[in-house]
Amino acid sequence: MYIIILLFIKLLNILIMEITNNKKTPSKDNQKPVIKKKVIIAVLLISFAFFGSFIIYFVLQVSLNTQTPIVVVISGSMTPTINKGDILFVQGRDPSLIQNGSAVEKDGDIIVFNAYGLWASAPLDPIVHRVIDKWYDNGAWYFRTKGDANSLPDPVQISEDNVIGVVVGGIPFIGWIKIVLTESGLLIPLLIIISVLLIISIVWDFVKEKEKDSERDLKEKKTDELSI
Q1: Where would a tag sit more exposed on the chain, N or C end, judged by fewer CB atoms within 10 A?
Q2: Pick the residue with more confidence: 26 or 194?
Q3: Beta bridge partners of 146
């Protein structure tokens, strides 16, 4: 998400430059305010590059009513319904409204839940499995879950406190980028490198614009001297 935002900002920066360049050459009195305006735009774009992904993620958290609105599927336990590498959108939901189902019909809601520590082999990452049974006991809802591709249900019941939300949509296979980079240990270094290059590119565009303005000033000054 962060890299996508940076690329969007880069394209926006190019568009702003094209619009600025196509405008009529400003007079000497107006050139300084124009340069200041460009600097302000550059600062705003770079600030958005840093904070934009956090803002978007926060908006998703609020709108989808969950602390984890996006997850990447890292196993094939839900194939063919959901495949490894899919990005899923998760919505928080009242446990009583989560749809029950059966392992045979596969008609229950697909939920995302934290299972780490619930059983010996439970992964650290959230699990995406289907609800095949639910019941209410001592003031709380509990769920029996199972991956569509698994032969057996999950070994323990899942409390409502462990449920992150219900899957409400997704994008196929895009998450493979994160999986490959994470497993290879290249995710953080690559994010840093791409971020630095894109930000340098944005700054450089504005520096070149300032140089063009300076050259324009010099040409106009020489023209005025010749006319005198």
Answers
A1: C
A2: 194
A3: 130
Average pLDDT over residues 174-182: 86
CB 141 within 8 A of CB 161: no
Residue 84 CA to residue 75 CA, distance in Å, equals: 5
Torsions phi, psi for 154 (to 5 deg): -65, 145
Residue 162: the pLDDT is 98
User: What phi and psi, each to the nearest 5 degrees, are found at residue 105?
Assistant: -75, -25
User: What's the distance, CA 161 to chain centroid?
Assistant: 25
Helices assigned H by DSSP within 65-184: 176-184
Half-sphere exposure of 42 (CA within 13 A, CB side): 20
Residues 110, 164: Cα–Cα separation, whole Å: 11
pLDDT, tens only, 92-102: 999 999 999 99
Say which DSSP state 26 is in: P
The secondary structure element, H or E, covering residue 43 is: helix 28-64
